[in-house]
Amino acid sequence: MSNVRFDFSGQRLLVTGASSGIGWEVVQQLLAGGAEVYGMGRDPAALQKLEGQGCRVLRVDMADEAQLSASLDDLPTMHGLVNCAGISILEAATEVSALAFDQVMAVNVRASALVAAQVAKAMIRDGVKGSIVNVSSQASLVALDDHLSYCASKGAMDAMTRVQCGEWGRYGIRVNSVNPTVTLTPMAQMAWSEPSKRDPALAAIPLGRFAETAEVAAPILFLLSEAASMISGVTLPIDGGYTSR
C-alpha cells in the first residue's frame, strides 16, 4: 500500500506504544508529515532508532502509574495524541484471573485515560484545539474466544472515547477510536501463522486478508488531521468488513 500523506507541519503529537507495531508506523507517518513527534514506549532499542529519526522518546512502563505521571509532567502542550499502547493476555472465560485482568486494564484503559486527561488538560489550558485517537480493536465489537480481558478493555476504551468526546468537544478537541482487525505486526505474523487459527479468521473477513500497519495508520492520520474536522465520538472499524456480518 502506498502511504497517504498528511501535512502536520508545526504540530506536536504524542504517540504511546511507539516502539512497535501500529504505534511505530504512526510515528513514521507523522514524521514524514512534518510533525514534531513524542514517542512513548518500552523497547530501548526501538526507541533509540526512533530518536535517530528525529522522534523525541520517552521510555515508560504504561502500567506504572507513578512512572507514567512523572513522564507526562514534563511534556509540552500537544496538538494531538494517539493512544496505541496495549497488551493482550489470552485466557478462557472460565479461567480468567484477577492478575491478568488487572494487567490488561491497567495498560489498555487506565493508562490511556490518564495520558489523554493530561494531554487534554494542557490543550484546554492553552486554548489548543486538536485531536485524540484511541486505538481500540474489533474485539470491542464482537466476541472473541479466550479474549475476555482484552475485549472488555477495548469496550471500555470505546466508552472512554465517547465520554471524552462529550466533555472536551466544547474546547475544540475531537476524540475518536479506531477498531482494527488482526494487524500484521511481526508479533501478529507469528501468532497467526498456524493455518488452523489463521484460515477461519481470514474466512470471516470479507476482504479475505488481515490489515497491514500502514492501512491502520492512514485512518489514524486522517482522524488527527483537519480533513476530519467534524468527526468526533466515532468508533471506526478497520477490519475488511469483519464486523459487518
Element layout with pairings:
Layout (H helix, E strand, L loop, with lengths): L11 E5 L4 H12 L3 E6 L2 H9 L3 E4 L5 H9 L6 E4 L14 H29 L3 E6 L12 H21 L4 E8 L5 H6 L3 H9 L9 H12 L10 E4 L7
Parallel strand pairs: 1-2, 1-4, 2-3, 4-5, 5-6, 6-7
Please provide a written account of the structure.
This protein has one domain: Rossmann fold (3-Layer(aba) Sandwich), CATH 3.40.50.720. The chain starts with 11 loop residues before the first strand and ends in a 7-residue tail after the last strand. The protein has eight helices and seven strands; from the N terminus they run βαβαβαβαβαβαααβ. β4 (80-83), α4 and β5 form a beta-alpha-beta unit. The chain has helices at 21-32, 44-52, 65-73, 98-126, 148-168, 186-191, 195-203, 213-224, and strands spanning 12-16, 36-41, 56-59, 80-83, 130-135, 173-180, 235-238. With 245 residues, it is of the alpha/beta class. The chain is 44% helix and 15% strand. α1 (21-32) crosses α8.
Task: Considering the chains and any ligands shown, give keywords for the structure.
245 residues, alpha/beta, globular, single chain, seven-stranded parallel beta sheet, Rossmann fold
CATH superfamily: NAD(P)-binding Rossmann-like Domain
Which architecture does the CATH hierarchy give at level 2?
Answer: 3-Layer(aba) Sandwich
Percent helix among the residues?
40-55%
- CA radius of gyration is 17 Å
Total of DSSP H or I helical runs spanning 4+ residues? 8
Order of helices and strands: EHEHEHEHEHEHHHE
Strand content: 15-25%
Intertermini distance? 25 Å
- Uncertain runs with pLDDT below 50, 5 residues or more? none
Spatial strand arrangement across the major sheet: 3-2-1-4-5-6-7
Overall structural domain count:
1
Indicate the multimeric state.
single chain
CATH topology grouping:
Rossmann fold
CATH class assignment = Alpha Beta
The best one-word shape is globular
Category from helices, strands and their pairing: alpha/beta
If you average the pLDDT, what whole number results? Answer: 94
